[in-house]
Amino acid sequence: MSVAEDLETPLVLRSDADGIACLTLNRPKAYNALSLGLMAALQAELDAIASDRAVKVVILEGTGKGFCAGHDLREMRARTDAAFHEQVFAACSKLMMSITELPQPVIAKVHGIATAAGCQIVATADLAVAADDTRFGTPGVNIGLFCSTPMVAVSRAIPRKQVMEMLLTGEMIDADTALRHGLINRAVPEAELDAAVSEMAGKIASKSPLVLKTGKAAFYRQLEMPLAEAYAYTSKVMVENMQARDAAEGIDAFIEKRSPKWTGE
């Protein structure tokens, strides 16, 4: 798909219901390749959602035959200067960091293929559910472009030997393998994908938004800490969490055997 075609239609579609925002990559003819335009549109949506108290969960999905085929190679070859390439990879890195730093949990809803930066999105998302015929890969080595930036997320999601095999051979893996490696949470028949993701998102959306925000931020921060430091940090997080209205409400509701009423405070 050309840049001109990109400008004729929304590159990211958004729909909201019951505290769940669904963001859909919308370049189906290009397997939702991450053009600069698409990344900018997705970044804008994530930035808006970050401060939207009505949104408790985000679902990322793609239109057409595949989730995301990675970067737009036609766009990358149309501009060969290093400055443009720096712009592309900086935009992509910012996008991945935004997914991780977003207060709301992000679920990748994957079908067809998720390759290179598309696989990176799956690995970056907090959770991922895929149709059981989905294929995943970091095939850059096949075209002379090692998947160095996708490697950052994928190597943090699956074991070292498995990710090195993906990176060095460029071969695709199926959904069952991705599940065994820990790249995705579930693999379901494609006909059940919508229901499986909706069920997962609904369960998460029923929780306190304050607790979701607190827990997600603490999870990623403590991962990079030494063990003793991680315990000291998370102990402080627990103390702060205990002072929240939602913690008091949740504990009281548990003791009183009733459903909690969250305020997000």
TrEMBL record:
SUPFAM superfamilies: ClpP/crotonase (SSF52096)
Name under which the protein is recorded: Enoyl-CoA hydratase domain-containing protein 3, mitochondrial
Family in the record: Belongs to the enoyl-CoA hydratase/isomerase family.
NCBIfam families linked to this entry: PRK08139.1
GO BP term (any one): fatty acid metabolic process
Pfam families: ECH_1 (PF00378)
Coiled-coil positions: none
Keywords: Fatty acid metabolism, Lipid metabolism, Lyase, Transit peptide
Keyword hit for tRNA processing: no
Top-rank taxon: Bacteria
Role played: May play a role in fatty acid biosynthesis and insulin sensitivity.
GO molecular function: hydro-lyase activity
